[in-house]
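User: Please predict the structure of the protein below. I'd like the answer in structure-token form so I can feed it into my own downstream comparison script.

Assistant: Understood. Taking the following sequence of 150 residues as input:
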Amino acid sequence: MEEKNNLSGEVTLAAIAELLRATTESLETKIADSAKTTTESLEVKLTATTESLEAKLTSTTESLESKIAASAKETVRLLEQKIDDSVGELAAMTQNHFLKLEEEVAEITSDVQEIKLNTLDIKADLNKKVEVFKHNDLIYRVEKLEKKLA
């Protein structure tokens, strides 16, 4: 009979309650299904995002490692070149100093030879003066003896 009442257009509290219960169950089922679908979708998206981030992280890490290695090689090359340049400059400076020292030694050697020649000249002059002195001394002594004997 209640079905007849429902069909006839009368609304009863029991019918509303039944409708609310059925609608609530239907909504709860739809909400649960929607939550499950959303959770699964989010899990899939999260997994895909995580995998994408891991791939990007791996790629970035490899790129950075490659750049660091290249930078290290370039730094080593530049340092080796600076060392080679420094060695060349040091060799040039050392050679220049040795050439200057060689010139100074040659100058000192010529000064020493000149001093030796001057010393020989002085010795020769001194020997001449000594001989003149001896000669004059002998003349004086002979004159003195001649005066004594005369």
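That's the full token string. The radius of gyration is 62 Å.
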